[in-house]
Amino acid sequence: MKLTRMLPASCCLLLCLMIPQALLAQKPTGSESPSYYNIGGVLSNNESESHFATVIAHLNFDQQYVPRGTTYYDKTIRIDKNPIKTALNVCKHLISRRVYAVVVSHEPTGDLSPAAVSYTSGFYQIPVIGISSREAAFSDKNIHVSFLRTVPPYYHQADVWLEILSHFGYTKVIIIHSSDTDGRAVLGRFQTTSQTNYDDIDVRATVESIVEFEPKLDSFSSYLMDMKTAQSRVYLLYASQEDAYVIFRDAAIHNMTEYGHIWIVTEQALSANNTPTGIIGLKLNNAENETDHIRDAIYILASAIKEMTVNETITEAPKDCDDSGAIWESGKRLFGYLKTRNIRGETGQVAFDDNGDRMYAEYDVINVHENHSFVKVGSFHYDSDKRKMRLKINDSSITWPGNTGKKPEGIMIPTHLKVLTIEEKPFVYARKLLDDEIDCADDEVVCPHFNITNGNEQEYCCKGYCIDLLKALAQRINFTYDLALSPDGQFGHYQLKNHTTGIGTTVKKEWNGLIGELVAERADLIVAPLTINPERAEFIEFSKPFKYQGITILEKKPSRSSTLVSFLQPFSNTLWILVMVSVHVVALVLYLLDRFSPFGRFKLSSNDGTEEDALNLSSAIWFAWGVLLNSGIGEGTPRSFSARVLGMVWAGFAMIIVASYTANLAAFLVLERPKTKLTGINDARLRNTMENLTCATVKGSSVDMYFRRQVELSNMYRTMEANNYDTAEQAIQDVKDGKLMAFIWDSSRLEYEASKDCELVTAGELFGRSGYGVGLQKGSPWTDAVTLAILDFHESGFMESLDKEWIFHGNVQQCEQFEKTPNTLGLKNMAGVFILVGAGIVGGIGLIIIEVIYKKHQIKKQKKMEIARHAADKWRGTIEKRKTLRASLAMQRQYNVGLNSVSKSVSSQNTEKTRYPILPPLPRTPERAWPKDKEYIVNRKNNSAAGKPPPRYMPTYATDVSHLIV
Question: Do 179 and 102 belong together in one domain?
């Protein structure tokens, strides 16, 4: 398929017929290299053929290249503009004579004949050395497998372009090229070499626009109209002579060949008949001198063969295109030796790259003066001392477009800029313009926000640190501007985007946010708290920092431990327990000392003769607590000398304990100031991913990039990546609400928040120090002016005034004064004491209620016992009355009968005893007797002893007891 691009169909058919069906490996005829070598030549004229033979004849006598016993012979044919005839002649007159290499020239009117020679010879791996072919197609080693050339390809002029741009300091260009293979090769070479060889981004040339046109065009005006709107005024042109004529004609019509425009062109475009004055072009040295190239090609070949014969054996070359289709392995290795040549020849330093293309080709830098005269103003030549190419230009001899000697700037400097910013307090405050408002306030600037998501545009008013800076810059360096907010509300970071191409969908990383707008050249300036870092500096330019800052951590001050037991904080739990135990131990010892001391009791001074009892245990406990709590003690003090000594010691102990408690209470509740939880970025709690500590930053910000770069912070970054916020405002609010423990962000913003809210504090020292800079496009003409203006602002104190006005607001002194002022105790601190008193009151009320209930229960129980005892005593009294009554009746009968009737009395007595037997008295306990029982029993005993009869009834008891008789 690739062959048909260079040859007609008939040529392809002929070459296919010459290719044998089977490839047989060719065996060497001997173990030694040949003693003679045929060198083929496909040349364009008789002079070249004659010179070819002469050079080879002289070569045989040059022992530096040809050792003894080796002879070179020339075999030449005339190149034909018909590539088929050329291929047949190569087979018939060169390969049939066993040529070891072929030197091919370029037919003036045809381009395909050298390709036919390369195809035919390359099929057998016979090296081909071109001396005039400069097309980019010969660099493709998949097609031209054994082709190398002593002339550079056209697209190598891009290397000289880059050197010229670097010399003049032009960093932004527009490339104009044809859509053929060579034109696209020039563009690829320029971009690749620029990225590879120019590490300094400040001097690296970047392509602002690429204009590709179809060859043999009729008009170029439409392209020129688009080029006028670009910023760059440096045009790099690759075009043929005919196309260059059209381009220069239309450019002159649109006044794009006058002063301010720079044209740097290749050799073909320089040969146009209407090249404007001031154009700079290139011309290859010895480009048309075939004789010098023939000599260099032959000597390079002889040098390679000589080195190869020393290292290995060279087999004989193929001899026939008809029946010898084997690949010549020695020819493949010979081509490798040829690519390693580096000699000084007639055309300069001759060397080859991996594609077999000529390196170190020398050019003249040509400047077109008036009357279409070409003047050499410089050269691109090989420096043998440094062993590299060097550009030398005489600037004073250059005539620039417009027939002037002053070098143009190379860019169109716009005076009206599109400026982007982003809401980030205190640098930019943005408020939405109300419906009833027509314009912003005097200290505000209109900053519309175009939402790329839904396509809506809303009017905002902006003010702040950066807005004041933008106003000062516009006034100092004289430009006007339109201000707008970031479309997606982000500073900018790399993100993956899907791109649909003809092959399929590919994923590509692109910038978004402010950086993306600047890279895509939809904005000219970024005036915002934009951190300068290497990732961004690779794609945009930064001014000198207008504010130096770093990264710090914002957290909320830890609240004091104002719990219900805050008043217990001065002493540890162990000390409180020991104090409680000591109170009761001392009370017990006081009780024992006063109890067993012989002087524990003493008589009162009164005359009643009573003694005061010793100290009991409850009084001892009351005394110990009273001394400790410094309360008045009215009763229950120790009486013995030993107990009073212990009481004095206990009083001293209590005084020390109370004084220590009072002093520490002030320190804990009044003078205590909470410290930050974190010590900085090196805090182990941040580094330890297992710790339950939430920290975060803003997605896609410079802080996010910083953590992504730091290998030692990778574990921490993986933890915080899931917690990152879209905006700093959300994160700061969550810190205030206690939802986020640590927010890592730029120190300027966090210091502003800490100065505004004294409950917030920054933790640790700054890390990742950097600065905020103004962002500009690559190669922007405003870079130097903005940088110089910012440096002036620093020297004049303008930046310091902005710091005081927008960042600190004077609140730092207020927070510092707040930190130095002692705290006042509040209900939070002493709530536990009030609760303790309340608990005492509730406990006392509860105890009195229990006591009342218990007392009532005891009284009720006592009443029941009294009733039961009274009933039992009445029952017992009734029984006694009955017994007394019976005895009285018996004695009355005896009295009535008379004492003289003894027998009758005895009989009567026996009868009474029988009828009314005397029962033994019931046993009575003193506890169950009535109060009068004792007196009754005593009287009864006395009467019996005296011989008196018992009384008929007792006055204590009721006479009517019939209802009690059972």
Answer: no
Q: Are residues 280 and 303 in the same domain?
A: no
Query: What is the three-class DSSP state of 614?
Result: coil
Within 8 A by CB and 6+ apart from 804, the residues are 810
Q: What share of the chain is helix, strand, coil (3-state, %, to 5)?
A: 45, 20, 35
Please confirm whether the linkage preceding 108 is cis (ω < 30° from 0): no
| 921 annotated to a ligand binding site | no
Q: Is 746 annotated as a binding residue?
A: yes
Greatest C-alpha distance within the chain? 211
Per-residue model confidence as pLDDT tens digits over 719-768: 888 888 988 889 999 998 888 888 998 888 888 888 788 888 888 888 88
Q: Per the structure, how many domains does the chain have? A: 5
In a domain, 879, yes or no: no
Q: Which residues neighbour 671 within 8 Å (Cβ) at sequence distance 6 or greater? A: 822, 823
pLDDT beyond 70 at 785: yes
Per the structure block, which two tokens stand in for 919?
């029962």
Q: Domain check: are 369 and 442 in the same one?
A: no
Q: Cα separation of 363 and 157, whole Å?
A: 9
Q: Tell whether residue 529 is among the known ligand binding residues.
A: yes
The reply, when asked if residue 702 is annotated as ligand binding, is yes
Kind plus residue range of the DSSP H or E element containing 120: helix 113-123
Q: CB atoms < 10 A from the CB of 348, how many?
A: 18
Q: Is residue 858 part of a domain?
A: no
Query: Does 536 count as an annotated binding residue?
Result: yes
Give 938's strand partners. none
Interval 676-689: pLDDT, tens:
567 777 777 777 65
Residue 888 covered by a domain: no
Distance CA 377, CA 382 (A): 17
CA angle 138, 140, 146 (to 5 degrees): 70
Cβ neighbours of residue 515 under 8 Å, at least 6 residues apart? Answer: 491, 492, 493, 526, 536, 539, 540, 775
Place of tokens 């320029």: 190
Q: What is the pLDDT of residue 419?
A: 94
Residue 801 region by backbone torsions, left for phi larger than 0, else alpha for psi between -120 and 50, else beta? alpha
Clarify whether residues 381 and 429 are in a common domain: no
Bridge partners (DSSP) of residue 481 are: 417
To 5 degrees, how large is the angle CA 559–CA 564–CA 568?
95
- DSSP lists the bridge partners of residue 130 as 104, 149
User: Helices marked H in 613-700 — which ranges?
Assistant: 617-628, 641-669, 684-687
Query: For 32-36, 73-77, 602-606, 831-835, which range has the lowest pLDDT when averaged over its residues?
Result: 602-606
Lowest mean pLDDT across 12-16, 871-875, 884-888, 940-944: 12-16
Residue with tokens 């006042």: 824
User: What pTM did the predictor assign?
Assistant: 0.54
Three-state DSSP class for 508?
strand
Angle, alpha carbons 174-178-179 (nearest 5°): 115
Rg of the Cα trace of the chain? Answer: 60
Helix (H, G, I), strand (E, B) or coil at 292: helix
Higher pLDDT, 758 or 118: 118
d(CA 417, CA 776): 11
Walk across the sheet containing 358-359 and list its strands: 342-345, 348-352, 358-359
Which residues in 490-576 belong to E strands, given as ranges?
494-500, 505-511, 525-526, 541-542, 547-556
Closest listed residue to residue 380, CA positions, set 177, 175, 156, 199: 156
What does the pLDDT look like over 576-607, one tens digit per residue? 888 888 888 888 888 888 777 776 655 445 54
Q: At 746, which CATH number? A: 3.40.190.10
Angle between helices 157-168 and 181-197 in degrees, nearest 10 = 50
Which residue bears the tokens 């045009």? 235
> Is pLDDT at 377 greater than 80 in this prediction?
yes
Q: Where does residue 395 rank: exposed (0-12), middle (13-18), buried (19+ CB within 10 A)?
A: exposed
Please state the rounded mean pLDDT for residues 443-470. Answer: 86
